[in-house]
TrEMBL record, chains A, B:
PANTHER family: CYTOKINE-LIKE NUCLEAR FACTOR N-PAC, OXIDOREDUCTASE GLYR1-RELATED
Superkingdom of this protein's organism: Bacteria
GO molecular function annotation: NADP binding
InterPro entries per record: 6-PGluconate_DH-like_C_sf, 6PGD_dom2, 6PGDH_NADP-bd, HIBADH-related_NP60_sf, NAD(P)-bd_dom_sf, Pgluconate_DH_NAD-bd_C
Protein source organism: Novosphingobium guangzhouense
Name by which UniProt lists this protein: 6-phosphogluconate dehydrogenase
Residue ranges of every copy of the Phosphogluconate dehydrogenase NAD-binding putative C-terminal domain listed in the record: 191-258
Amino acid sequence: MTTRLAVIAPGAMGSAVARELVGRGAQVLTVIDSRSERSTLRARDAGMIAADLSDLPGCDLILSIVPPDAAIGLAQMLAPVLRQSPTKPAFIDFNAINPATMQDVSAALSGTGCDVLDGAIIGLPPQQGRDGPTFYISGDPDGRADVLASFGLKLRQIDGPVGAASALKMVYAGINKGLVALGTAMFLASERAGCAQALSQQMSESLPNLRGQLMHAIPDMYGKAYRWVPEMREITAFLGENDPASGIFDAASQIFASIAKDADRTLIAALDRVLSQTDSGDLAP
Amino acid sequence: MTTRLAVIAPGAMGSAVARELVGRGAQVLTVIDSRSERSTLRARDAGMIAADLSDLPGCDLILSIVPPDAAIGLAQMLAPVLRQSPTKPAFIDFNAINPATMQDVSAALSGTGCDVLDGAIIGLPPQQGRDGPTFYISGDPDGRADVLASFGLKLRQIDGPVGAASALKMVYAGINKGLVALGTAMFLASERAGCAQALSQQMSESLPNLRGQLMHAIPDMYGKAYRWVPEMREITAFLGENDPASGIFDAASQIFASIAKDADRTLIAALDRVLSQTDSGDLAP
């Protein structure tokens, strides 16, 4: 019997995941917003099957892969359909939401009779020629998500309740993207203060790996900064006001916002000047 | 003619620097607070010569190497002595102070007739068996500090005004210690949220260098956290209220303060649990 999965929505990540699953023989349904030509094309390209909401309860799993602010809405939209259905797919929320928001997703689906699992995707969308992301699951004592591993996804169960996978996404993104915010701010400050060349040289000597990572990650951030602003806010909310570290992510969201609205590319030009510093400074004789 | 230098004070860094200079044949004077037996011993051990304030104007260079909050006071104390002296040593402030504080140091010494140079020391104190720190200088168009290179110090002139070397110290420490604050906060959050093992494994795979650096730098911070609190505040002041990144260092100072006053080692025990996570998690079948 063919395994039938649903992936909503066919965004960059969702469609790339669907292509992997289809390639290994799964049927993958999706619900397409016909107003978005791009989504329609991506879904077709990935071999996804356009379906109605009422088709979804017939799937084994429903994967929610949407922007963070759409996670609760999707759960609320599906709840009545799942409640009325005799078949009960497991619902996995794979979104970059904080554990409290994940509890809201769970609550929206309570009374449907469906298992609600917490998921997190760490890494870039699957693509030919690079390692795919890792799919973390928590709150799945019966291993209902394990079927995804048989379709080639790198799946890892976290021995923890619903919320642990969402928390993992928060702390991992906090380190990875928080570092980019920190580097961005310090590189800009070094430019303003006239010590960018010295900083570059000193880092080459004493922090070469960190410098290499920032040299790659900062330019890669320019085009994503607008998406990272709400993600940093999710981390701020995750930590809560009583954790002083929430201030790091409040600052990070502002730093990424300043890059996102850097329309005349003043900041980006300054960063590029720092990133292009070579290590030609000589020691005094 | 023997080169005569002054290094004030004989703290951990000052005395280690003096030992290097003495070892290469310089005479190194210092002023010892006789109330501190430890300083007296360190100075003697480094081959420094105990001197009075009135002896200092006879030196070629005076190196100020004191805690950040003592930098202005030392300059103010030396000012009358230097003003009245016919010989005019250059004064180098090597302290971890922000550029505005460095301007205050300069102002305290204006009218003395002495050149005031801005310095920054990046790295651990010189010690047998490891690379010494790098000594950065700005505001030294005549190369008056270059004599330090001839006594074995790794000296680098920054082509910038007084303030540029202090700024370099701020941005370098901002990246290096800001990362430790970020890692500390996220590791603690992962422990609270039950995803420390998964975080450790994910970082081993996708951020191995960063993980390695944090595994080393976080335990190394425990005993220094109390000193890093004021250093983070200097960086906050350096960036200023209008730079959102100042919030990162306001948070970092609070994070280090929480470690510094972690008397029952609750936080340190939690961090040690995260740091001791092995990468034994298996992928689902």
